[in-house]
Amino acid sequence: MLFLLWFRVKQPESMSQKQLMEIWKKEAEAALSAVKTGTIKGLYKVSGKREVIAIIDVSSHEQLDEILETLPITRELGHSVSVEVYAIHPYENFYELMKKLTS
């Protein structure tokens, strides 16, 4: 199951830039490890913003929940991180559906 995840990170007022970057470094290390294992299919930083977009491949909704709850940035920043989740599928699948529906 493919999902697009859009992370938005807000720096808590009580946290220094250095502290935020230290947490984000841990997150980046975990994310890049997941890229190597194939769980993350695409990983992108939005330029000029504290936002990251990931495309992940998981076997269940429960696995998605587990991943999101155990991310270093979620554990350490909690409410300062918002995540939008979108179920996605290859455009080719949509094209095949359109062919079927129009025949």
From TrEMBL:
<dbReference type="InterPro" id="IPR026029">
    <property type="entry name" value="MLI_dom"/>
</dbReference>
<dbReference type="InterPro" id="IPR011008">
    <property type="entry name" value="Dimeric_a/b-barrel"/>
</dbReference>
<dbReference type="Pfam" id="PF02426">
    <property type="entry name" value="MIase"/>
</dbReference>
<feature type="domain" description="Muconolactone isomerase">
    <location>
        <begin position="1"/>
        <end position="88"/>
    </location>
</feature>
<protein>
    <submittedName>
        <fullName>Muconolactone Delta-isomerase family protein</fullName>
    </submittedName>
</protein>
